[in-house]
Amino acid sequence: MRPYDEALAQLLNDVGSVATASNATESVSLLDAVSRVLAEDICSPNNVPPKDNSAMDGYALRLNEANEQGQWQVVATRLAGDASALTVGPGEAVRIMTGAEVPDGADTVIMQEEIIRDGDSISLASEQGVSAHKVAENIRPVGNDIKEGRVIVAKGTRIDASHLGLIASVGINTVSVYRRPVVAVISTGDELIEPGQPLPAGSIYNSNRYFLLPMLEKLGCEIIDYGTLKDDQALFERVFKEASEKADFVITTGGVSVGDADYVKPVLDALGNIDFWKVAIKPGKPFACGRLSKDDTQKAGYLLGLPGNPVSAIVTFMLLARPAIQQFSGQAAEPLAFLPGRVTQDVRKRPGRMDFQRAHYVMGEDGRLKVTPFNSQSSGVLSSIAESNCFMVLDREQGSLEAGAKVKILPFREWL
Ligand SMILES: Nc1nc2c(c(=O)[nH]1)N[C@H]1C(S)=C(S)[C@@H](COP(=O)(O)OP(=O)(O)OC[C@H]3O[C@@H](n4cnc5c(N)ncnc54)[C@H](O)[C@@H]3O)O[C@H]1N2
Ligand code: MOO
Hints:
CATH class of the largest domain: Alpha Beta
Protein name: Molybdopterin molybdenumtransferase
Shape: elongated
Pathway: Cofactor biosynthesis; molybdopterin biosynthesis
Bound molecules: ligand LQZAQKY5, molybdate ion
Number of domains: 3
Cofactor: Mg(2+)
Strand content: 25-35%
Function: Catalyzes the insertion of molybdate into adenylated molybdopterin with the concomitant release of AMP.
Largest sheet: 6 strands, mixed
CATH architecture of the largest domain: 3-Layer(aba) Sandwich
Keywords: Magnesium, Metal-binding, Molybdenum, Molybdenum cofactor biosynthesis, Transferase
């Protein structure tokens, strides 16, 4: 059994990345770019905001040159979108709206709640007069958000809604992204039935397919869904081969253990090579992987054989398949971000496997995170994932723990 870190390092080394391949990029319009990985640094061609503008509805004036009476004459009105030439002289003010360009000469915008207006004459409402205000207040300076030429989103970033907004804010509507990884998904097992069908004796509903497809979607993958295969070695061989010729990754669930109908490994061995089998993690130990071709020069899909138990399948997807697909997609490495916490109850654990217990974490009254493991840690209990918000991660050589012990928290809901 490989320790988790070694298994992941080997997997990442074996799968490579489209970022090093030629012809692996395409140009897409902004709204089609969400969930894709950027193949270029996005540099801003201009300043945001492009000119000094007002943060408030109020009056633009020269606070530095306030007269003794602290009074100004309103000489014009400035709306957002109006860029006509306009200069404010000493003793003059311009009625200005939020977002409008600050007229030349003005050094400050006073918000209207802090102004007393009498006809076209304004004065400061505060008894402290000018000293209640600061020069430049309520002015958003040119380039305050983004300076011209700055990299606003780096190559290797998986684009989310905030990146789309930021890229739009500098006026760019097309970006270069890496091609999508093609992923074939295969459920295996004689006992599996699709939801919506009556359940014959001895059968169970296929749940793995229903969390894998949306998680792959979220990773920007192009999916080939092979549904469910009966446990038949010749059938596996034929379908795995076909899938590997079309897909970058072939993800299977089930059939990787030591049972009489566990054909995934023998088929991987026959078509290609097993990179490794078994990782020292709980759940998910029998994870298997390798390339589905013996010919190194041929492009062929890489098999990620997830264990059949639903929790083992989702955990190995999150911890092994997901980083492999992210790296292959050209995404910059994203190491697991643990949070420090304390466990609320005694925990039993035997040394030997790194344990990813499903758990719920909250902020305690002392401001520290406290984490409570789900009451069943069985790898068949999928509600342990649906009702948890993190893994409580216990190192491989760790033994049992007492309530109050320090543990690592790994939030996972954003991956789902
Ligand atoms: N003698 C041993 N037996 C087992 C070992 C072992 O080391 N020695 N390891 C156990 C562990 S740990 C796991 S995990 C499982 C993995 O088994 P397989 O990958 O071969 O999976 P299957 O036997 O095909 O299925 C296991 C379990 O999961 C259910 N299943 C499968 N696919 C789905 C699906 N798509 N949706 C819902 N449920 C699914 C299946 O019905 C079984 O109950 O092996 C242990 N055994
Ligand atoms: O690894 Mo199995 O996934 O312990 O149930």
